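for the record, two folds in this file. i put them one after another cuz i was lazy. first one right below, seq on top, structure tokens after. the second one comes after a little note so u can tell where it starts
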Amino acid sequence: MTFTVTASSAASVGTFTFRVSGTNGLLRHSIDLAVQVSSSVRDFTISLSPSSVSLVQGAQVSSAVAVQSIGSFASGVTLASSGVPSGITVTFGTNPVTPAAGGTASSTVTILTSVSMPVGSYGIVIEGSSGSLSHNAILTVIVTPSAVADFSVWSSSRVISVTQGASGAATITVLSRNGFSSNVLLFVSWLSAAPEDTTFSLPSAITPLPDATATSILRVTTGSSATLGNFTLRVLGVSGSLSHFVDLTVRITGQQCIIATATYGSELSPEVQLLRNFRDNMILKTYAGSSFMTVFNAWYYSFSPKVAEFITQQQALRTPMKFVLYPLVAILRVGATTFSVLRANPETAAVISGLVVTWLLGTSYLALPFSALFWRTSRVRKIARRLERPLIIVILGTIGAILVTELSGGVVAMMILTSTVVLAMMILSTLLTSRLIVSLCSVLGRRGFP
């Protein structure tokens, strides 16, 4: 027997129990069936708590923004504001927000008024949009006169985005109200669990002039092994019995291969993913590898943003840059394979795969230019031969020192050692390969090849 349940478009949403009974003479049996009716609508709502806020001139206040999923809606909702009068600044915390299907995601909307903002009531439209869907809620802002000398603290940005191994900053402003001109001490603390390998700095005290502002720079610095994710940082200003604060989100992301991204046009391209996987999931997972990457990133990110910007602006450069990067991509495939074979000992795998990659980079990118120099000048060839043995000694000695440092620790020592062995290995591979090319060309020349 088939039992069919059909729900109309107006059916109530929820779980319902049906009892199915069967009789045969004096015999009677039944079974209970649970039927869950869900909504076919895919939408969202937006609400504010509170929907009406009051603040004095020159102060700031926040309201929670809740985005409620309806049905199976689970997309990002971008928050924006409209109808904002002059003298009021509106900023959002997390934006966009993405609720889970049937769940709620939240953000904050912060209202900052100028000291000269006219007293009155203002309606600001808080909008949420996702594709063709759009909803809004009205936030009523009541501005009242301020008669007490006070101050407020706010930030130029509510989100500081920083990649691993880099730093980000925001301008912290102390705003004087009603003639306030006292010293304000600034304190910074993590409200959430503090991310690893991350520090912050902020000058501890500033003094605004009456009815003016004073600023200080909050700088967040991350190491190559910083914890990825979003973290909340509070900046608290204290002056006597007065205290005000502003909360910021510190968003730590993985480092970008920005030149490769600009060349291939997307972070999702297979080539960029290969570079990132070798760096993040292999080299950075090890002590020796992360120590070297700290030095490498300081060098690489000193020039790569400008190069990437130039490539982005000059689209015609993408094709020749792909040819330039093709050997690098192939070499890193070899390095990743080497690491995978030796994965049982990650530290050893990082050192050996790093040496393999370094050797191939010197051979691929530097050998040909140097071989032309060797071909023209015998003196240079003699100097190169004299350098080969010392370089081999340096490489072997440095590898031994790396093994000792792995056991004894020492971040700075490991950074120096790994950088030294990489540089020595690249020079050695360049010299040996260049000399080999010159020798082959000489042999071919004696045999009558052009």
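(here's the note) second protein begins now
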Amino acid sequence: MRTMSATPTSSQRVTHRAVLAIALPIMAANVSEPLIGVVDTAVIGRLPEPYYIGAVALGGVIFSVLFSAFGFLRMGTTGMTAQADGVGDRDELRAVLARALMIAGACGLALIVASPLLRRTAFAVIEGSQAVESQASAYFDIRIWAAPFSLANYAFLGWFIGLGRAGTAFALQILLNVTNMALNIVFVLGFGMAVEGVALGSLLAAMVAATGGAWAVSRELARRGGGWQWPAILAPARLRRTLRVNGDIMVRSLCLLLSFSFFTAQGAKAGDLVLAANAVLMNFLYVYSFVLDGFAHASETLVGRAAGRRDRDLFRRAAGISTLWAVAVSVALAALAILAGPLAIDGLTVNPEIRETARAYLPWVALAPVVGVWSFQLDGIFIGATESREMRNMMIVSVAIYLGAWALLTPIWGNHGLWMSLLVLFAARAATLAARLPTLDRTLFGTPGPVAAR
């Protein structure tokens, strides 16, 4: 028997303040993440041999790719949690988290079991010197044990974001990142360890964050009430839905990851100078994603609540207000790139040739947030509605358009064509998802009608 609250626990209205209350903590948490790489480089750079830095960098890339493939645990959990919260179903709130943690545990253990094969495959794809690979292998063999905890942290973050508890999600992310940085400093500079110390710090930080997440969940559930209804948690239909949503988002995420990897690989074919310039400019895209992700998360939460209630007016208002803020911020980011971009490039590299080359492609980077914001927001809307199949299918179509644009544009305009094709990917993602909005509206509310702010 389900436990329902007398009224939904979340607010009946979507306001500008509600959007910012979710978006701003997420932005702050995102900004803290790159600091881990800076600290890792700084502490391991105190060791005399250069291959230590290379090993940590290589190991970090491998786990970034490996764990990002499981980002569906965050996104899928957010949408389903927000929908359960929207109707005040306290038992289903517990069930959504339980299913996500079951998947996280199973996938984490599978990664550990498959780690020898994963290690060989990773080093076959990303080659390094013998010394770098030897040290990176030691890093890999320690950090892989963090897999169940790292994936559980995705589930915890998704659950709290779905509840609109962005402050708690922010606190957990800060706990993870600050603990990671502190332990790396202690193990490397204090105990004299090398890459093993950095890997151990990452492992223990994931465990600490997972423990903190479990504690925060227990407090939230005690406040909300409800109970663990295992027949409902393990209901085949609910499990199939969870697996379907997560599987679709995983395919979508892998397509996006492969698209950016393809971009990097094609830049490398144009020579070291172009590769370096593109790498410098990609830092701008990382900043954009850190900022615009906050509004996409707000869309996921608020749209998910409205979808759970089958409230079209609330749905439109949630989509409209969050998108309004996202577009305004994207224009500000574009202006900032134009005005301060050359100075930022100079801060990222001292090489005059790389500086000059990066400046030549800066206009494309300045356009990126204005073009890309729509795909960010539409992703958030479809995640909140848990219409993951549409996301998967439209991403596949968009990647095909992207590759077609690359084949057409790069022979004519070289690296300019490559950057143009990346913007085509952003635009294609937005256009294809926007074309599916009427279908989404009918699916949720039963009658045709455009999804727009009133």
